[in-house]
Amino acid sequence: MGLLQRLGLKIEPENKNNNRLAILVDYSNIAREVSVQGKILDFGKLLRECLKLGSIEDAFVFIPDGWYNAPQVNKFGFEIITCQGVKESEKIEDRVDIHIIRRAWKLAQDSRITDFVLVGHDHHMLEWIKDVKFSN
Q1: Rounded Cα gap, residues 61 and 79, in angstroms
Q2: Exposure letters 34-54 (e unless 16+ CB within 10 A, then b)
Q3: Separation between Cα atoms, residue 53 and residue 132, nearest integer Å
Q4: Minimal CA–CA distance to 84: which of 72, 71, 102?
Q5: Mean pLDDT over all residues of the chain?
Q6: Least confident residue range of 52-66, 85-99, 116-130
Q7: What is the per-residue pLDDT for 135?
Q8: In this structure, are residues 15 and 54 in contact, taking their beta carbons and an 8 Å threshold?
Q9: Which 3-state string (H, E, C) describes the chain?
Q10: pLDDT class for 134, splitting at 50, 70, 90?
Q11: Contact, 29 vs 120, CB < 8 A?
C-alpha cells in the first residue's frame, strides 16, 4: 500500500509501471534556492509529478534543527525529519545531507522501494546515489 493510499487519498499513479518511489527533500537547501529565484515550493505539484513516475511509498522532508520555517507538508503525507547540527569551529553545520544519505541507505534495503526522487540543490548528493544497491 502506497503513501497516498495510507493517507486515505484515492490518487492513482499516472504511469502504470511498477516503480515504487521514496521522495527525499532537503528543504532548507531547496528553500534558499527558490527564494533567491522568487519562486514558491509547491509540494502538491511535486507529488503530481512523482505520480507520473510511479507510486509513492514514502516521502520525507529534512530540515535543520531549530529551523522555524518548517513547511506545511503533513497534508501531502510528507514526514518531517529534524536534523541536529554539529558545532564546527564558530559555526553550527547542519547534518541534513548525512540524514538523507542514512535514510536512503535504509530505504534501499526495503523491498517496497525501487526508485528515489531526491529534491535538493547539492550536486554532490548524486555521487552517493550511484552506489545505492536496492534489495529487490
Answers
A1: 6
A2: eeeeeeebebeebbeebbebb
A3: 19
A4: 102
A5: 77
A6: 85-99
A7: 58
A8: yes
A9: CCHHHHCCCCCCCCCCCCCEEEEEEEHHHHHHHHHHCCCCCCHHHHHHHHHCCCEEEEEEEEEECCCCCCCCCHHHCCEEEEECCEEECCEEECCHHHHHHHHHHHHHCCCCCCEEEEECCCCCHHHHHCCCCCCC
A10: low
A11: yes
pTM for the full predicted model? 0.77
Residue with the three cell numbers 559555526: 91
Which amino acid makes up residue 58? Answer: D
Residue type, 60: F
By the 10 Å C-beta count (0-12 exposed, 13-18 middle, 19+ buried), 58 is classed as: buried
* pLDDT, tens only, 17-26: 788 899 999 8
**Long-range CB contacts (< 8 A, 24+ apart) of 47-53?**
47/4, 47/11, 47/76, 47/77, 50/21, 50/23, 50/117, 51/11, 51/12, 51/13, 51/14, 51/15, 52/13, 52/14, 52/15, 53/13, 53/15, 53/19, 53/21, 53/115, 53/117
C-alpha cell at 16: 502504470
